[in-house]
Amino acid sequence: QLGLKTKTFGHFVHFVEEVDSTQKIALRLAYDGAKEGTLVIAEQQTAGRGRMDRKWFSPKGTGIWMSLILRPPIPPQKAPQLTLLTAVAVCQAIQQVTGLVPDIKWPNDILLNGKKCVGILTELQADPDRVHSVIIGIGVNVNQTIEQFPEDIRTVATSLAMEKGERIKRAHLVQEILLQLERLYHQYLQHGFRPIKLLWEGYAVSIGKKITAHTLNGSIKGTALGITDEGLLMLEDEDKHIHYIHSADIQL
Ligand code: BTN
């Protein structure tokens, strides 16, 4: 019913009406041996998970809440590259379907007019030298109106429909996201991260700017120089010391 145009992504689909988190189901399926390209998608999540132990608000029928299982032949250090790849794929899909041009805030927030409309969460099952599976969780605010967001996030969140001024067909966007993801993923497996990194930099808003990175171990102020080939953020502080950041919230 999704009308997919992909070769393998989304060819096994677990569609669920209501679930705590598609991420949790996908992790379980991956553990049980599900094939690459298996997709879990829900109408509603009761306990959607965000980055850094936060919640992701996922009300019924308004957004895309999905998790995709990948099995890339890469070591775990390279997994952050897939987060960045996903952000590029989702930006391309949004552009294709709505004509809107999103920005990326490192590592994986997608913004329209400075407000977040997409969150991406990647989780791994891996040995020290080999990834078994990567679960790519994608949450897209598609058709929410402002009243449908919790009050405390109304100034920082938006939906595609709010920005575009009209409702958007979710199935169409799912098709396009999977298509772009599959295309970039194959490009990545063949040619490595370089070409993806260039695309990513084209959408990135934080590079070259003064930012504050809030990490779990405290905050660092500095200039965002760019990302490394692994996908880490390079931040130069006032003493010209360069920090390599794995995970943080960026304040522009
Ligand atoms: C973020 O904090 O920005 C990441 C949010 C990721 C949300 C998606 S929705 C589908 C998948 N299932 C979850 O529980 N979380 C991810």
Automatic annotation (TrEMBL):
Residues 1-189 form the BPL/LPL catalytic domain. Biotin binds at residues 45, 49-51, 116. It is an enzyme of class 6 (ligase). The keyword DNA repair does not apply. Signal peptide: none annotated. This is Bifunctional ligase/repressor BirA. The chain holds residues 78 to 329 of 329 of the full protein. The lineage of its organism: Bacteria, Bacillati, Bacillota, Bacilli, Bacillales. Acts both as a biotin--[acetyl-CoA-carboxylase] ligase and a repressor. GO terms for biological process: protein lipoylation; regulation of DNA-templated transcription. Keywords: ATP-binding, Biotin, DNA-binding, Ligase, Nucleotide-binding, Repressor, Transcription, Transcription regulation. Its EC number is 6.3.4.15. It catalyses: biotin + L-lysyl-[protein] + ATP = N(6)-biotinyl-L-lysyl-[protein] + AMP + diphosphate + H(+). One of its GO terms (cellular component) is cytoplasm. Belongs to the biotin--protein ligase family. One of its GO terms (molecular function) is ATP binding. It comes from the Bacteria.
